[in-house]
């Protein structure tokens, strides 16, 4: 984690020690909200300045922090001690923002400081109050939907932004914490009322300190940023780092292109696609594809679905129910009590899928979610990260979470686990994120200047490039989208399989042990798909028989690998659901029930079948297979290592067919075959 100031200068801190928050003493000289009579609020209302919870009651409060949480708070305090008044703290979903906030609140209360905690979601109010109560702090709640009236004398005020903007501010606040600051900070309440009131005209002289918390501090509009509100930035570990630490589950991403016509989408004033244009592309046909793909990939997984609008959400809910899946829909208009009931049913498993519109993105904390369906497009990285963050939390028995992207969001914005830069200033300023740009380059043939590939005229010499017809790439099939780390692991696995078959560089028997030892988890079967034969469906039968022969040859000398179960697994990994692990010997391919030694008859059968398949539309596969069978039929020399069929095999040993030749005695014309303790006449053996 780095300490970054808005000047692009990294601020080096001294040895960081965990210290209490020594900021913002209640002071009547601070600017406070006043009423029309000019009196401070607490004086006019008659409220006594005695807090519900004293500082002493919080002394026994103990919050157990992870190492990175301790460091993050220490860095925030270090900034405060250096005279910086406003710090933005980035902590991704699962990093424990509520715990971080609670710790800072407890530290402030221990010093008798008054705290204002701002949220914009009802669920966040409840979560925060619950956490503070466990620490012996009973906050006052400023929210129209709360059962009790707020007590402005309390040391801690938890306020809903939408409610507070229509009410007077609590007085003498020494610490303001804005949760989900990527949203709360852009309410007029924060910039036009909270900051001026508690920070004064000159922020550097303020006795109040400000902390913004966010798991997604990225603004969609390039002209928006945070440097007008915050002076420095502290970063907790990024999502992939938390995954590596074991605090989040692994992420597996799947994408489906070509469902949305992006030409129909318009961009609104907030920088994201407009509601109307999104609803025009998220049609019932689109929704049907969402339901279909979910059922194909992970029907057993408990899932949440993010939709573009109410009509789409209702339609998808109906389609899931029609498929026999218990699904419920929750939208902004859903009453609070009904929401709680829906959340409870989803939590206990009564509801299998929860569909939402602008509800689950923030404050929804249900760790049992196993799949996230992105059934809407967005241009907002913050929204994408928030949506995906709902699925990464740890839960008992949960190894990973599937993310199904039906709107090319990952392709457009990057994977949600990626380490994105988090600048305070707008992207259009000098702090433009260079590392996220990947501009293709080309060389001017006239002057040799390397310029961006999209330029039609060389800016150095004026050379005009010939116009090229743009051909859109075909939509890719549905498949997993890998993080950079996963790409390296999958590349290793696929190269291993490829080399084991084509180049015989390493044995395929050791792939399980080698992969597990190297990456500390089991091989994902889907990563092996088409690694060897590159998905050539025109030669499926031929390739399957080639691979079966290879597997049989590799594993037959090890008893623990002789089982059909292992061959079936390896066949499934390469060919997926189209796998047929049944071995066909050469005579079966030629249409015979058993091997024969009459070469002329074999040639006759081969010729007739070749003539037939040479005149069929999809005959290439069978022609390759027939060629394989004919080569095996003609190459029937009995030698060590060859797989043979014992023609006169006793019935009680028939289940062992075929056999592998171990040794050959040329003088006696007999052979030793695997599993049989006596020699067998070569005349009774036929190469399989």
Automatic annotation (TrEMBL):
GO terms for molecular function: helicase activity. Residues 290-440 form the Helicase C-terminal domain. Keywords: ATP-binding, Helicase, Hydrolase, Nucleotide-binding. It comes from the Bacteria. Residues 78-235 form the Helicase ATP-binding domain. This is DEAD/DEAH box helicase family protein.
């Amino acid at each position: 984690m780095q300490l970054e100031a808005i000047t692009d200068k990294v601020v080096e801190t001294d040895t960081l020690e965990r210290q209490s928050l020594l900021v913002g003493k209640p002071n009547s000289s601070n600017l406070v909200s006043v009423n029309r009579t000019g009196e401070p609020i607490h004086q006019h209302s008659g409220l006594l300045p005695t807090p519900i919870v004293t500082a002493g009651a919080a002394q026994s409060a103990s919050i157990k922090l992870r190492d990175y949480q301790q460091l993050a708070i220490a860095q925030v305090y270090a900034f405060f001690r250096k005279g910086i008044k406003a710090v933005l703290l980035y902590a991704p979903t699962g990093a424990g923002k509520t715990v971080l906030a609670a710790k800072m609140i407890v530290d402030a209360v221990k010093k008798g400081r008054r705290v204002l905690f701002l949220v914009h979601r009802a669920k966040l109010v409840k979560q925060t109050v619950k956490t503070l109560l466990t620490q012996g702090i009973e906050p006052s709640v400023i929210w129209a939907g709360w059962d009790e009236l707020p007590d402005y004398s309390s040391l801690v005020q938890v306020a809903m932004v939408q409610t507070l903007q229509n009410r007077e501010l609590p007085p003498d606040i020494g610490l303001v914490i804005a949760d989900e600051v990527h949203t709360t900070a852009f309410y007029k309440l924060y910039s036009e009322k909270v900051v001026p009131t508690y920070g004064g005209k000159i922020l550097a002289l303020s006795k109040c300190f400000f902390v913004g918390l966010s798991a997604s501090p990225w603004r969609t509009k390039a002209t928006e940023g945070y440097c007008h509100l915050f002076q420095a930035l502290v970063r907790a570990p990024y999502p992939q780092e938390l995954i590596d630490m074991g605090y989040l589950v692994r992420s597996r991403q799947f994408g489906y292109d070509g469902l949305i016509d992006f030409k129909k989408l318009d961009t609104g004033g907030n920088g994201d696609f407009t509601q109307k244009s999104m609803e025009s592309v998220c049609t019932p046909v689109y929704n049907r594809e969402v339901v279909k793909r979910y059922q194909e990939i992970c029907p057993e997984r408990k899932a949440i679905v993010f939709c573009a609008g109410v009509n789409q959400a209702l339609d998808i809910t109906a389609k899931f129910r029609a498929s026999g899946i218990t699904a419920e829909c929750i939208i902004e208009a859903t009453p609070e009590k009904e929401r709680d009931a829906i959340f409870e049913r989803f939590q206990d498993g009564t509801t299998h899928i929860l569909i939402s519109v602008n509800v689950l993105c923030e404050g929804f904390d249900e760790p049992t979610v196993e799949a996230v369906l992105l059934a809407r497009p967005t241009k907002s990285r913050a929204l994408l990260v928030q949506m995906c963050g709902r699925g990464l939390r740890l839960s008992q028995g949960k190894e990973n979470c599937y993310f199904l992207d039906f709107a090319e969001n990952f392709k457009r914005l990057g994977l949600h686990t990626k380490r994105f830069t988090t600048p305070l200033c707008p992207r259009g300023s000098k702090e433009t994120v260079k590392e996220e740009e990947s501009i293709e380059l080309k060389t001017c043939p006239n002057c040799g200047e390397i310029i961006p590939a999209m330029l039609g005229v060389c800016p150095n010499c004026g050379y005009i490039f010939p116009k090229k017809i743009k051909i859109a790439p075909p939509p890719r099939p549905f498949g997993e989208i890998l993080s950079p780390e996963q790409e390296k692991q999958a590349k290793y696995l696929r190269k291993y399989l490829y080399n084991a078959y084509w180049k015989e560089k390493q044995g395929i028997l050791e792939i399980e042990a080698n992969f597990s030892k190297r990456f500390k988890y089991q091989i994902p079967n889907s990563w092996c798909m088409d690694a060897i034969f590159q998905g050539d469906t025109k030669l499926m039968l031929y390739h399957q028989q080639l691979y079966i022969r290879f597997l049989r040859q590799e594993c037959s000398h090890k008893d623990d690998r002789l089982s059909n179960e292992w061959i079936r697994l390896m066949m499934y990994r390469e060919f997926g659901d189209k796998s047929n692990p049944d071995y066909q010997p050469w005579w079966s391919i030629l249409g015979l029930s058993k091997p024969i030694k009459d070469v002329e008859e074999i040639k006759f059968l081969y010729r007739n079948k070749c003539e037939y398949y040479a005149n069929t539309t999809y005959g290439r596969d069978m022609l390759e297979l027939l060629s394989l069978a004919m080569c095996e039929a003609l190459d029937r020399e009995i030698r060590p290592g060859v797989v043979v069929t014992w023609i006169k095999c006793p019935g009680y040993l028939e289940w062992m067919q075929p056999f592998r030749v171990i040794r050959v005695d040329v003088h006696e014309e007999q052979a030793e075959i695997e599993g049989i303790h006596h020699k067998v006449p070569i005349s009774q053996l036929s190469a399989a």
